[in-house]
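Troubleshooting log. The previous structure file for this entry was overwritten by mistake, so regenerating from the original sequence record. Sequence copied from the archived sheet and checked twice against the printout by T.R.
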Amino acid sequence: MERIPMTREGYQVLKKELEHLKSVERPRVIRAIEEARSHGDLSENAEYDAAKERQAFIEGRLSDLGYKLGNAEIIDVDNLPKDRAVFACTVVLENVDSGEGVEYQLVGPEESNIEKGRISVTSPLGKAIIGKKPGEEIVLNAPGGKRLYELVDIL
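Regenerated output below.
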C-alpha cells in the first residue's frame, strides 16, 4: 500500500473538501439532475448533460480524496530534524544572483500552493532542496536557465 505523506493541515483541508463534496455538492448535483429530467427529452437536454458531467467529476474526486486520505501518512512537523531539509519543514532560501530571499514549506503535491509558500517535494525545486543543509547551494535547472540558491535556514 502506497503511503502518501502530508502535513496535518493538508490532511484537514482534504478531509474538509471530502465532507463538502459529500454533504453539499453531491446533493446539489442530484437535485440538478432531477430538475433537468423533469424538462423532458434527455437527448437534447444540455442541463442534464452538464449535471451528469458534474456528477462524474464529483464522484471521481470523492474516490481520489478517499484514496489519499485512506493512505495518508501525517508527518509531525514538531519532530523533524533541523539539520537538513526534509518533508514538511520550512526553508529559507536566498537567490545567489539577486540576493532575494524566499521562504517555502516542503509539502506533498496535493498541498502545494506557491502563493502560500508551499511547494511540492516532487517539484524540481522541492527535489533540489530535500536533504540539503543550511549553507549549501541549490542548483535549479529552470526553463529560463540555471538558478542558484543558498539554503539559509531551516525553520
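Residues 8-38 form the longest helix (31 residues). Archived copy saved in two places this time.
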